[in-house]
Amino acid sequence: MTKKLNNPAHTWAMLCHLLGLCTFIGIPFGNIIGPLVVWLIKKDEFSFVDEQGKEALNFQISMTVYAILAAILIVIMVGWVLLFILTIADIVLTIIAAIKTSEGKSYRYPYIFRLIK
Question: Which residues contact 106 (CB under 8 A, 6 or more apart)?
Answer without folding.
Answer: 48, 51, 52, 55, 100
